[in-house]
Structures are given as C-alpha cells and as structure tokens.
Backbone:
C-alpha cells in the first residue's frame, strides 16, 4: 500500500511503521465526534503511556489524528477513504524504532516544490496532468516554493516524475511529527509568587513605556478572549494560513502570558514586556507551518518571534531547507528571534531552530541560579535543560542565555480545558517557559528604543546577562559578546542590567512617556572587498553613513570629546579563497596604537563564508584615536567582502 522505506532530502532512510497511520479530516472535528467516528470504524487514536517523568504529547488535533490501524491493506484503505469526514490517510515512518520522537507522517496528498523561476502556464498544465493543484494561500509564505495538493490517491509515486521535470528543482514532503515538539515539562505543584521576575531583576516601572513592540508567538495559538492578553490582531492558523490564531492546544496561551501578559491591571499575572501579541497557531507542527509562521511574522511587522519548541537532527522529519530561508528573511527584516534548547539534558546538541546562528538559543535555570539539570535539588529532578555545543552552517552554536524555567505562573486557556481549571497556571515549566522571558526582554528593549536593531538587542541581552551559578565563564572566540560558559551561555538574563546597557548605548528612553531624547550616533562607516595576504594591516572604509561631530576622518575615529563610547564591529569573510583554516580572519580595534582586548573572529571553516561581530565600551579622552585592523593567518590570500564600524557617544 505505502512504500516500506523512504529516503529523505538529507539522505536518511526511514522505515514504515505498519500499525500506525495519520488521518486528516475534511473539517474540524471535536474529540467527542472523533471518538464516535473511530468507534464506528473500529479504530483507536494513538496514545502515549505517560510517566511522571515523561511529558510527551501525541500530536492529535481537531483536523487530524494518529490512529492505530494495524496492517492497513488496500481494501481497508479504500473503505476508510470513502468515509466522507476523512480527507486523506498517510503512513507513519521512523528513523529510530526505539525513539518515539523520530516518528512522523509525510502527508500523502501534499508536496512542496522548489521551482525554477515563477509559476507559469506550462507548469500549471503539467501539474494538472498529474491531478495536482497549487494552493496559493499556503504557498505565499514559503520563500518562493509552491505547495501542491493531490485530490485523490497518494503522492509518493509522483515524486520521481515531478523531479524529472526541468522546471522543478526539488520536492519535499510536508512532515508532521507524532509527538508535539514543545519544550515543556510540568508537575502539579502550585505557587502564588512570580519568583522568576524577581530573579531576573524585573520591575513594574520597566513596563510603563509605550510598549509598542509586537511579539509573535508561534505555538498552539492563544485564547483570544483572555482578559490578561493584548493582541495586535486575531492572528492566523498556520495549517490553513487563514484567521484566526485560536488555540489548537494549551501551550501557546501559557507562552504568550510570560512574555506579554497585561501588567498593572489589578488582575492575573505580570509579564516581562506588557506588549502586544501576534498569535500564530500551528495545526500539525509541520515544517511547512513553522516556515510559514516565521515568514508571516516578518511580513506582518513583528519585532520579536518567540519559539518554545524545536526538534533534534536525529528525529529526521523537519526539512531545515524550508525553515532556514524564513529565518534569514526574518533576520533581514530586523526581527529578533529566540528558541528553546530542549529539556533532554543533552550536552552535545540543542534543538533546532535554537541552534540556528541567527536565533538566540535559550536554556533554563533553576531557583538556585544554576542550569536545570537531571538530579538537581529542584522540584523536578528527572529532566534538564539541554546545553549542546555544535556546528551548524559552519558556525559554532551553543546556549546564548538562560532564564528561569520552573513553576512559572502564566495565563491559561479560560475555563477547565486548559492546564488547570482556572484561567491561570502557576507551574509552567521547561525551556518553553524560559524562552518567552527572553522574548519579553527583547520586546521591552525595543519598546524603549525603537531604533535598536535585532542584532543590537541580542548583543545587549548577551552582554548584560548575569554570571551566576558559580560556573567558570571565560572568553571564547566563538562567542564574542562576553565571557561564556557552555551550560549557562553568557549567563542568566537580567532585565535591569539590559535596560541600563541599552540606555548607555542609546541614551535616555526615546519614548515620550519615558522622557528624554536618544543620544545620537557619533559615526557609522562601511567598507568592502578587502584583500589581505598575512600580516596585520589597517582596514579602509569607503562609505561614511553618518559622522555626527566629525569624529571620523582618514579611516580612523579621532575622539571629538572625552567620554564613554560604544563600538560595534561586524564583517563577512568570503568563501572564494582556497586552503583556509578555521577562524583564520579576525578584525579588532586599536586605541592609540594599542590593541583593544577582544576581536571579531570569522567563526567559519575552510572555504566557507563566515561572519564575525565584536562590541566594546571604551573610556576615551579627547583626540584619542581608534583604528580597525585585520589579522589573517598566513597564506593564501584572505578576502573580507563587507565590514562595518559604528560608534555611539554614550
């Protein structure tokens, strides 16, 4: 009936699970109606035998469910597909039979096509000849890729003839995980105090700014009627790409409350940012939905994307080639992104997308300001926040910062259908609860300083993190913002310190409700196409974007007045040289002929396109001189294609 094996885009060969299928419904069906349907068909939904230390949740919803079907024959399949409420039946595959997280379904009636150029009549006619139609609504936010649907039959046999068409470069299944990839753990204990806000040094006065930032919560939607949440719009369902972002599960409402619950309203909980939420509801947790959600967030104008979910590479179902372009697009739209590392206590890897270099990876800390680990003295000793260190896209990636992740009070779906019977839940746990605290902090900074870029906000959060937990934090060229520790990243977030650093950079809060005007940039310059053959040489900048106070001249900054200055240095190393080594290019600052501590290293491997970033605050006297130098490791020639230096008079 279905192929016994499939080979995925990354080369992984997955095996068919013959006793399980995924049924997609034509319309939304309640749990009660599903039970009646499956009773009639003599089937049962898949359920996971939960232990107290195992919070895995099967990914069933009102639009589809995983079902125990036994050995589904052609005859029984034909009988089931004739049931008017069933739109399609898809097989389930796994890459590791012993790991339930690796089980997924490649939908039998959907393909995503990577095409050459734009959709044209010739392509449409070809697709129609294969009984395929383009879904323009679901294709809109897939970075130029096209989602097609098959009305009858199964799509697996069409992959080869489609890929032989010269217009089609590649095709991808839409893959739905058996287990929800949320980073959540929970117990039954209840607390009444938001200890996490005290721990991260949050204060109510911080949210009295205009709070103009928008936090996109890509998750299981939000209760749009919750009185303690403020929405910028009703959002979308990412399965249909149509309104609205109502709950498809409990997880999203809880995440939204931590980041952005209405504060100082004499009701419920306070949040880190008190900003508006864009609720985006996953329907199936497929890779297509995640990519669409990130792209839509960027186009909508969200300032922050909070992602309390992720998958490990070994699960082998999400196609990162669908999601990576969306992350790059959002980053280019100046969106700050953060995601959870996971709760498996892994020391060698983190979940994706938290490990993407453009996403701030968020780990979890306990009430003692240590990494939440297996066997610690906290209330849940059976799980720990992952803290992997690995390479992705030729960049070293690891934990960026940590935030409290135990017994976090937050909003809940109204009534008895949420995590609790109340409208609030006091024990939301896991790196899922840590991530929206970081998202909230990013939104808070953006509200106070709308001119702050996503890169600057990330650096502020990293540099202001508190070095807690009696860990050894040391300087690591792969993590240039500050001293770093593998388990804790740059440290536990500190709201007060982050806002103080932002104020040092941008001056007093520029919002009219906060008083004061921002300090202006002293200078901003760019250069390109630098060629270096070995010894350290001074960089030359060809473009002057801003020169407030005339401090920049002759490829150097000559301090016009004494004070504290903030410098931000960035560069791109091109990939077209040969024979290079890891981290073979660095840029650094020189003050009055003496090298400033720290450097922006390329952070990439041989023959790879690399990036580096370095920022520092310096006390300068009038007429002090700052120059930029480049260091290259020997021969052959190294190429730096783009580089920039920005300086603020704090």
Residues:
């Amino acid at each position: 009936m279905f192929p016994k094996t499939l080979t995925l885009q990354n080369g992984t060969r997955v095996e068919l699970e013959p006793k399980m299928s995924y049924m997609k419904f034509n319309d939304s069906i309640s749990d009660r109606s599903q039970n009646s349907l499956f009773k009639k068909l003599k089937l049962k939904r898949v359920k996971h035998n939960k232990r107290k230390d195992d919070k895995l949740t099967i990914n069933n919803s009102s639009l589809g469910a995983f079902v125990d079907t036994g050995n589904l024959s052609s005859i029984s399949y034909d009988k089931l597909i004739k049931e008017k409420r069933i739109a399609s039946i898809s097989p389930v595959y796994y890459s590791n039979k012993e790991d339930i997280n690796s089980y997924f379904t490649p939908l039998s009636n959907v393909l995503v096509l990577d095409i050459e150029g734009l959709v044209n009549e010739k392509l449409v006619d070809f697709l129609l000849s294969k009984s395929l139609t383009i879904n323009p609504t679901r294709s809109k936010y897939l970075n130029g890729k096209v989602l097609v649907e098959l009305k009858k039959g199964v799509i697996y046999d069409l992959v080869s003839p489609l890929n032989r068409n010269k217009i089609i470069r590649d095709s991808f299944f839409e893959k739905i995980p058996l287990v929800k990839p949320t980073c959540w753990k929970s117990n039954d204990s209840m607390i009444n105090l938001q200890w996490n806000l005290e721990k991260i040094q949050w204060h109510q006065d911080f949210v009295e700014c205009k709070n103009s930032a928008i936090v996109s919560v890509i998750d299981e939607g939000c209760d749009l009627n919750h009185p303690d949440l403020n929405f910028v719009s009703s959002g979308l369902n990412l399965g249909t790409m149509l309104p609205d972002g109502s709950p498809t599960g409990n997880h999203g409402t809880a995440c939204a409350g931590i980041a952005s619950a209405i504060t100082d309203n004499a009701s419920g909980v306070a949040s880190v940012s008190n900003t508006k939420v864009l609720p985006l509801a996953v329907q199936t947790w497929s890779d297509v939905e995640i990519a669409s959600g990130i792209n839509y967030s960027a186009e909508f104008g969200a300032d922050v994307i909070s992602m309390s979910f992720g998958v490990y590479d070994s699960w082998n179902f999400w196609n990162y080639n669908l999601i990576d372009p969306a992350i790059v697009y959002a980053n280019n739209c100046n969106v700050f992104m953060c995601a959870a590392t996971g709760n498996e206590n892994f020391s060698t890897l983190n979940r994706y997308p938290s490990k993407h270099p453009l996403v701030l990876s968020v780990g979890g800390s306990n009430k003692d300001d240590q990494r939440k680990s297996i066997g610690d003295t906290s209330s849940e000793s059976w799980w720990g926040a992952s803290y992997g260190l690995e390479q992705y896209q030729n960049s070293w990636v690891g934990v960026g910062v940590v935030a409290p992740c135990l017994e976090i009070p937050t909003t809940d779906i109204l009534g008895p259908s949420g995590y609790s019977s109340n409208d609030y839940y006091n024990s939301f746990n896991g790196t899922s609860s840590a991530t929206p605290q970081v998202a909230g902090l990013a939104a808070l900074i953006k509200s106070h300083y709308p001119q702050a870029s996503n890169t600057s906000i990330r650096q502020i959060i990293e540099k202001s993190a508190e070095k807690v937990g009696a860990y050894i934090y040391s300087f690591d060229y792969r993590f240039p913002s500050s001293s770093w520790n593998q388990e804790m990243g740059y440290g536990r977030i500190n709201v007060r310190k982050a806002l103080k650093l932002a104020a040092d950079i941008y001056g007093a809060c520029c919002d009219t409700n906060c008083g004061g005007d921002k300090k202006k940039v002293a200078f901003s310059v760019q250069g390109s196409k630098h060629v270096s053959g070995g010894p350290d040489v001074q960089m030359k900048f060809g473009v002057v974007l801003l020169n407030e106070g005339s401090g920049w001249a002759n490829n150097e900054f000559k301090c016009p007045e004494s004070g504290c200055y903030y410098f931000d240095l960035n560069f791109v190393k091109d990939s077209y040289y040969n024979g290079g080594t890891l981290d073979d290019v660095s840029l650094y600052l020189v003050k009055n002929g003496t090298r400033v501590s720290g450097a922006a290293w390329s952070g990439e491997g041989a023959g790879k396109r690399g990036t580096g970033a370095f920022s520092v605050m310096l006390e300068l006297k009038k007429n002090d001189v700052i120059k930029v130098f480049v260091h290259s490791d020997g021969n052959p020639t190294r190429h730096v294609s783009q580089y920039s230096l920005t300086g603020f008079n704090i």
Q: What stands out?
A: DSSP finds twelve helices and 35 strands in the chain. The chain has a mean pLDDT of 88. The radius of gyration is 26 Å. The longest strand covers residues 13-25.
